[in-house]
Amino acid sequence: MSTEVLALDSEKEKKPLPHGMSGIQVLVFIVSAMSIMILSLLDGSIVSSAVLPIVRDLDPAHGMDRFPWLITAYLLAATAAQPLYGKLSDSYGPRRIYLVALVAFLAGSALCATAQTLTQLILFRAVQGIGGGGLMSMTLIVIATLFPPKARAGRSNAGGMLVAAGLIAGPMIGGPLSQELSWRWIFLINVPVAALALGGVAWALRLPVRGTRQRVDPFDSMLIASATCALLLGVKKYGDLHTFSGQVVPYVFGGLAMTMFFVVRQLKAPDPLMPLTLFKDRVFRPSAILQFVGGFALFSLPVFLINYLNIVRGVDLNQVGLYLIPLAVGVIVVFFAWGKIVTRTGKCRAVLVATTATATAAAAGLGFTAADAPAWELNALLLLLGVGLGGVTQIALFMSQSAAPADQLGVVTTTSRFANMLGTTIGGTVLGAILSARFASTARDAGISDPDAAAAQLAGLTPARRDLVTDAFAHATSAVLLTAAGLMVLALLTALFMDDVDVNALVHEEPADPSAVAAAPTSEEDEEDARTDAEHPLPHSLHPHGAAGLGADGSGARGEGRRAA
């Protein structure tokens, strides 16, 4: 999607612009949002390619042992903050919470660039993770608020380009940037981009005034964040120890106990942080399963493929991004294709099933041929895997957002993202344990049992032992890919039985009593928005409640035509 097309869409097709926004404001917002999203995508992984300069500078004695916490701190903070972002967005409006996430990411990036110890850097990475985790979710919520489902599907190709850029650029930027300049530039580069995006979003973005201020329970927020951190730390310990005992048990059982307590509180709460009634919905429930399984089986695979290309195929880590271009092309292709198909047909499930089946077949194909696949076959399978990577969870999220009531759009989006991030983190650890176990059982004769040490020791081995190690790593990677393919069969069954969503049959009705939807302004910003409402009435298709299917009584019920029979 080019920005020029976005700016000219309304004039060429006479489509109404989003709420109170001019064409240039839409353009500025889209450019700002896309810029900050790609930074958020990169920052989840770019640090791993600058490990040696960071350790050498901040903690040469113990840095290698503590370095994984730089990754863990970001992921923990980003994942644990998801439920709170959704509730705050539904309660106070996505614009304000989006700006809060931007400020947190900007502050965290600046702090990381100035860290003097590894402990400080780990702490500041958590601050950055709170902001970075919110940026992706809040951008999705804001775009879903601005544009009706059919318009979002038609513009989906921009997201594909961002994901593809993240896949290629992440492994290639961190190393050279930290070697040629300084590892601090990994974070410093975020500061001017995030500052410009903050100014652009603050000036350009206009959203409908929220009529409710729901209570946000701080205890529930801390409870789910603590439970998430405990479970993910337990998973991390399991990944380190490869045994479910000792230090793993307190984290896992503590996390499960807090999760159960949280569920009980949500069942009794008049205004829950994460409404469990969402899981009764026949679109959201399978979508949440697809988010978790897709994260578990697909989103963790690029890391394993990078190591496979490095150890088995002998690709330098600084160049490995080039070998992932077929994967990135697959992501771009499916983003262009699914939006066009959904826009033309109005139906979503057929595209979801097709991309899920493609991902399943690609993972299985890679698993069966990893040891000896020729380059053309490897590239073809990576292309197909990219189709699944770009299609499964994104289409499922689009369907659940389209079927969501307006007052739950934030919770639906962030709960979906929460399931996906949990699946990705847990999947990476569990599949890593499978890789380690399989590698250790087949590489004994080479004298190496740890796959993490294989790359460093490979050059010093004799040709015969080197062949043993590469063959063992190839077969271990095959086990990971076949496990992922088996899980994707579950995802395929889930997609087949998921209710369809017909974006051509959405009902956009105005509530009978507008005062029941829009309460009196509570701040100067709300007063300005209210004046904008009076001067520029919101088009029917972009009404904040109509876009989510408010019934004629304003109750928030979905329109009957939302789902296909």
UniProtKB/TrEMBL annotation:
Membrane topology designation: Multi-pass membrane protein
Protein name: MFS transporter
One Pfam short name: MFS_1
InterPro entries hit by this protein: MFS, MFS_dom, MFS_trans_sf
Primary localization: membrane
Organism: Streptomyces mauvecolor
Classification of source organism: Bacteria, Bacillati, Actinomycetota, Actinomycetes, Kitasatosporales
Gly residues bias (residue ranges): 548-558
Compartments, record wording: Cell membrane
Membrane-spanning parts: 24-47, 67-85, 97-116, 122-147, 159-177, 183-207, 219-236, 248-267, 288-308, 320-338, 350-368, 380-398, 418-440, 472-498
Location of region: Disordered: 512-565
Keywords: Membrane, Transmembrane, Transmembrane helix
Domain of life: Bacteria
Domain Major facilitator superfamily (MFS) profile: 29-503
